[in-house]
Amino acid sequence: MSHTFPVRVFYEDTDMAGIVYYANYLRYIERARSDWVLQLGIDQLKMRDEDGIVFAVRRVEADYLHPAKFDDRLTVHTETRAVTGARLIMHQEIRRDEELLFQAEVTIVCVSLSGHPARLPANIRLQLH
Question: Coiled-coil segments, which residues (predicted)?
């Protein structure tokens, strides 16, 4: 299952050289994952309030390949790599047109409101396969 999400680089996203500050790539891929979950029809607030669980990033392995710059139009591509009972592994790329600028492997887990590990809800696992 895959998803695409557009991002425009604003002045506030850049450093003095007009290059996207490295931490903002993580913000872009987070926005893309949030949009993807919403498009799947998963209500994260309901999941928190009714099931007492939330998604949390467990691990990110990121590669910064080429800089994005002020006013670039980017696309974040998200693809599910693996879904288990306890985790979701995703591959995310940021491209400017066809040029690959950034890529990351992201591991998402569910945790209870007290911070303990929790299983991914069955209905979510089914949607992601």
Answer: none
